[in-house]
Amino acid sequence: MLIGVLSLQGDYDLHIKQLSRLNVKSLKVNNSEDLSKTDALIIPGGESSTISILIDKLNLRSKIADYALSKCIFGTCAGLIMISSLKDKKVNALNILSLDINRNGYGRQVDSFSKDINLKFDKKLPFTAKFIRAPIINHLSDKSIEVLASCDNIPVLVKKNNILGSSFHPEIGNDCRIHKFFIKMVNSEKV
Fold this sequence. Notes:
single chain, Rossmann fold, seven-stranded mixed beta sheet, two-stranded antiparallel sheet, 11 strands
C-alpha cells in the first residue's frame, strides 16, 4: 500500500510521520504522476486558499476529482474544506463531499483549542482533537454522510463511502487511531 499526501502546502510531514508509525509507505504528491502511483490520498491542513490556487496551478483539480471516484481520500482541516462543496470567493473546493461548511468557523489562530471527542469506531478512550483555524460543518447536505465523531454536537469527523474528512488535525500527537481507520478504509476498497 502506498498512501499519497498532497504536499503543496501545510502540515503534510506530520501525516507522513503518522503513516510511518503505522508502517505504511507514503509518497509526497506534487503532481498528477505522483498521484497516479498511490492507493489513497490525504489532503492535509494548511491554508485552504493557497492549496486551492496550487491545485489549479498544477492542473490537479480534475485529477483529484476523478481519483475520488474510485480511491480513498482523507481531508483534514483545510483538506476537509477542499473536499467539501463550499462556495467561497477565495477557495475553489473540489465538491467531493456535500457539506455546508464555514472556513475558520472555530475562529482564528489564537482561538485554537484541544478537546476530547469520542470516536464511533473506537469507544475505548477519547481522542484529543486539535482545532486550529478549523472549519465548522454547518450542515450535512447528504443524509448518507456518516458522523464518526462530534464536538459539542457538531460533526467533526465524517465519512461517506471512500471519503473521510475531519475538521481537526488528527496528525498532531501520537494517537494514530484515525489514520489506522483510514488505512482500513483503503484496504476494504482494494478488495
